[in-house]
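User: Structure tokens for this complex, please. No commentary.
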Amino acid sequence: MRGLSLSEAQRLLEAGAARATEIGQPMNIAVVDAGAHLLAFVRMDGAILASIDISVGKAVTAVLMNMPTDELYDLAQPGAPLYGIETTNGNLVVFGGGIPLVVDDEVVGAVGVSGGSVEQDVDVASAARDALAGTARP
Amino acid sequence: MRGLSLSEAQRLLEAGAARATEIGQPMNIAVVDAGAHLLAFVRMDGAILASIDISVGKAVTAVLMNMPTDELYDLAQPGAPLYGIETTNGNLVVFGGGIPLVVDDEVVGAVGVSGGSVEQDVDVASAARDALAGTARP
Amino acid sequence: MRGLSLSEAQRLLEAGAARATEIGQPMNIAVVDAGAHLLAFVRMDGAILASIDISVGKAVTAVLMNMPTDELYDLAQPGAPLYGIETTNGNLVVFGGGIPLVVDDEVVGAVGVSGGSVEQDVDVASAARDALAGTARP
Amino acid sequence: MRGLSLSEAQRLLEAGAARATEIGQPMNIAVVDAGAHLLAFVRMDGAILASIDISVGKAVTAVLMNMPTDELYDLAQPGAPLYGIETTNGNLVVFGGGIPLVVDDEVVGAVGVSGGSVEQDVDVASAARDALAGTARP
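Assistant:
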């Protein structure tokens, strides 16, 4: 398994924060490794406090489920197959903003972003993800 | 109470894993006893990490509720009688893949499977359950 | 990072269980991967229930702390440097029976054993560890 | 209350990481604000996983208790006034490495460091604290 270095994680945080600044929305941004353990985190000035745990939870969820958290959203709705899954693993988040980092078909970690609208969170998480060389863009 | 032995639990894990291999979907498989305590567990190579807790949670739920977790699914929906039950006991799972093991009308434990679609999880859990001699097939 | 396969984990469980049978003490035995996520677990017939969580906790602790849990024992005593550490990470265990699995100077996982005296737990955990080819024996 | 900015928090992380590199010990470093909420975090390459929660816990403890965590150490020992306090607030840590950030007699946040010996943790946390202009050095 390819490890994710701190300098790579920080490059992702910077790219995410740059995009957040561009769209004028302060964000919490978290990067976890392939074991879902926190590698690096920033809360931008003015970002809401709830989004600390939400951003970390999104990154953790993306690794544990091996999918972007926005794909989990539909699956977790009432009447959908995984209804209730947000309570099964402590800190799962079932809306967008968590994206796995995939290099050579292998999940090496994930980025989680929270603080804006879900669309903004996904936008910023994608910008962060794109800063990792070799990352698959499905 | 008739106890479930480790060798019986392991036979269930093997039968479940064999079925999982047959359908090409790596799974997490857990067996708990009549007190809902873990007896044996395997995570097949390539199975997602979230399903560790979910498979154990399904087996625990099947014992605590004395029903297959897919029967709990309808009851837990918005407007249904047990809406919100997924948060009442720590790790209840309200979608399919957890099946009680019933011998001579007595629950002796349960098997929980997670890692594929809910249909695949139920399929593999059923194969595991069927490996226990004398198990009721409702 | 070198991954630990389920068949390797099961070989460790078998070696541990064989040693436990040899000394006449039923045990709970857990194997986790390098991210401290459960890979395989067995509770031998007659092993006490508390040791389910303790065995998993010992394996998790050995990975998170990167040391055998018996080395943590002295450090966690009143007046010792890490007094109070058993409460900092959810399920840390500060007595013997958790041993990291080290291959080529890299932690690839850990085994945790609980059910007997601490000496017996360490004995069985060591037997399990020795079943992994290439494991360092410090 | 004077707020701590992200750029200030990052300056502290850099100063701490520089000191950690100097002494050759990879560390987890966390900065929280005056409300004990995480502002920024880094896990240096090679730092142990247990220290993620411990570093955050030390920073949280330093704010909640308004004292360096090494001062809490003596108070938390058996027979001392605050015996048992490590379990009262979820994630309190009662050994050194958490230091409040005090500007003009006001706590504006705290830094928490974990990954080395307690002495090394305190050393690195002090280096981080000193990077904040106007910080009191008691």
